[in-house]
């Protein structure tokens, strides 16, 4: 009986080891399956986002920008112009405006535009042009951004803010396409609380000053346009 019990014990131990090995193998296979499925989900999500890019409009803009902002967390944008470069930092505390600016930069909208309005000792404004592609993209996307006005953000020198319509716009919703930079070194504080400030210049103040010196027509449009080449760099 003693010998039989020993053999039985050895067999039992062997059986347990085999079971554990099988279980380990199954767990390993399960992990591989989960990882594979996660990759598929991410791939499908990216496809959905890419498809959504072509359909963003005033009806789905908020939900789209929330998702897009979560997938695109960059905050530094570089503008290259014939008069020099301007590096901009976007604020995370204005997530919809940040996401929109990154979106329009990555899709190439700003590359069809210029600095189209100059008011010396006040602002330099960009994001529009006479280019047919600019008008086509504005009609295609056709959305507005809810105000994200923060009381501690002021229209200081170099502040980046969203342009907006003043008439019939009680909620102060922003245009996603046009932005302005404060060129007045004293600031333009009469605009505080009226527009969403969503970033600031961190390098390239001299370029802004060079743009501000250009001659303009009666509509404040520069006689020699300064086209923009924008890229998200960080």
Short summary of the structure?
The protein is an alpha+beta fold and 234 residues long.
Account of the protein in words:
Helix content is 40%, strand content 20%. The mean pLDDT is 86. It has two domains: 1-53; 65-232, Cyclophilin (Beta Barrel), CATH 2.40.100. α2 (61-71) packs across α3. It has helices at residues 2-53, 61-71, 95-106, 132-141, 205-212, and strands spanning 76-81, 84-90, 114-119, 123-128, 159-162, 179-182, 197-203, 226-227, 229-232. It is α+β, with helices and mostly antiparallel strands and 234 residues long. The radius of gyration is 28 Å and the shape is globular. The longest helix is centred in the first third of the chain and has 52 residues, at 2-53.
Tell me the CATH architecture of the largest domain.
Beta Barrel
Q: Roughly what fraction of the amino acids lie in strands?
A: 15-25%
**Mean pLDDT across every amino acid position:** 86
Structural class: alpha+beta
CATH topology of the largest domain: Cyclophilin
Strand runs, count: 9
List keywords for this structure.
single chain; 234 residues; 2 domains; nine-stranded antiparallel beta sheet; globular
Q: How are the SSEs placed, and which strands pair?
A:
Layout: H1 2-53, H2 61-71, E1 76-81, E2 84-90, H3 95-106, E3 114-119, E4 123-128, H4 132-141, E5 159-162, E6 179-182, E7 197-203, H5 205-212, E8 226-227, E9 229-232
Antiparallel strand pairs: 1-2, 1-9, 2-7, 3-4, 3-8, 4-6, 5-6, 5-7
């Amino acid at each position: 009986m003693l010998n039989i019990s020993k053999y039985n014990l050895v067999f039992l131990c062997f059986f347990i080891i085999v079971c554990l090995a099988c279980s380990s193998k199954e767990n390993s296979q399960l992990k591989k399956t989960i990882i594979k499925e996660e990759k598929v989900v991410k791939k499908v999500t990216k496809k959905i986002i890419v498809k959504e890019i072509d359909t963003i409009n005033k009806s789905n803009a908020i939900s789209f920008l929330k998702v897009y902002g979560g997938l695109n967390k960059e905050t530094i944008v570089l503008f290259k112009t014939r008069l020099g470069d301007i590096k901009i930092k976007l604020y995370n505390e204005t997530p919809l405006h940040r996401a929109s600016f990154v979106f329009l930069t990555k899709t190439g909208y700003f590359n069809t535009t210029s600095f189209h309005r100059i008011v010396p000792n006040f602002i330099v404004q960009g994001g529009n042009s006479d280019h047919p592609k600019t008008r086509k993209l504005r009609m295609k996307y056709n959305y507005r951004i809810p105000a994200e006005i923060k009381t501690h953000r002021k229209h200081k020198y170099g502040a980046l803010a969203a342009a907006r319509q003043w008439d019939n716009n009680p909620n102060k919703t922003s245009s996603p396409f046009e932005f302005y930079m404060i060129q007045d070194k004293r600031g333009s504080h009469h605009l505080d609380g009226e527009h969403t400030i969503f970033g600031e210049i961190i390098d390239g103040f001299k370029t802004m000053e060079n743009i501000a010196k250009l001659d303009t027509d009666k509509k404040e449009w520069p006689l020699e346009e300064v086209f923009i080449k924008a890229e998200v760099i960080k």
